[in-house]
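My current task is to audit a protein record that another person submitted. I have pasted the whole thing underneath without changing anything:
***
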Amino acid sequence: MYVAVKGGEKAIDNAHAWLAEERRGDTDVDELSIAQIREQLSLAVNRVMAEGSLYDPDLAALAIKQARGDLIEAIFLIRAYRTTLPRFGYSNPVDTGTMRCDRRISATFKDAPGGQVLGPTFDYTHRLLDFKLAADGDAPHAPVAAPRQEDTPHITEFLKGEDIIQDEVFSDDTPGDLTREPMAFPSNRPLRLQSLTRGDEGFVLGMAYSTQRGYARNHAFVGELRIGKVSVEMDIPELGFAIDIGEVELTECETVNQFQGSKTEPPQFTRGYGLVFGQSERKSIAMALVDRALRWEELGEDNLGAPAQDEEFVLSHADNIQATGFLEHIKLPHYVDFLSELELVRKLRREAEARMAPKEAAE
């Protein structure tokens, strides 16, 4: 129960004004533009778009600026704005096999069909501070631009020729929409994947790391990690066919996992899957590992009691907006609640002291 605070409205207005002043910072320093954030903090923009479930780099950059760089607050802003947008329909599933890859690597095949493209990555940097960046110098140009591949087949498809990797079953069923209906348990894989792609990167990373350390015995190889742009198409009833309405940048990861077989499935490789807006390698790999851990039941595996195998635990705690709301609400006024508990503790202490008094007198 919350109670009114006298003078609260004026105090809140002043807090908002102070927040705006702190957001701007020293006025002698040039203000950040939306374009600067979009182009130079692109990985932060990508995270906000992915966990906010809205692909719009400019709006994500605006949210980051408004939130003073607090990405969870920015994600909250994007989700809140998203609820005000009309929905005209659903796009068709994107075909990631036609992705124009800026980066495409495999940890399973050195000579991967279609080639490996390192692309822009931190993987081979020395993690040393580059003080040249503090001098605001011009960015170096890549000596050779990475070739754009038109149709790049998925590497895991080549394992199907030997029939040693689990075949994904295609379904015509329309998947549920987590943005319109709350999660219910038991869930299904499409909803689990939606929850994981919207989930907090740090939480999903922690769950994935736990599987690698032995909680779920999830030994995985990155079958393929690819980053690039794909076309988005939408069926137009008036036209009777689909049209291209734009393109989005995606990161896709497929893991290949060892599987010794079960009562229902033969020994084979199985898959984990991750798909995230923008360049989000860490998130997509972590998502794929957690996806695989959550598939234990459909593959006939034993539940080892690992946290990453507990669907309700993982999906109920992955959403950083829900977690933030529940966490931060405790700093709001709880005066009546606390006073009642304070009185209860005082009463219990009086009763305890009354019971102890005769014993102390006897001693």
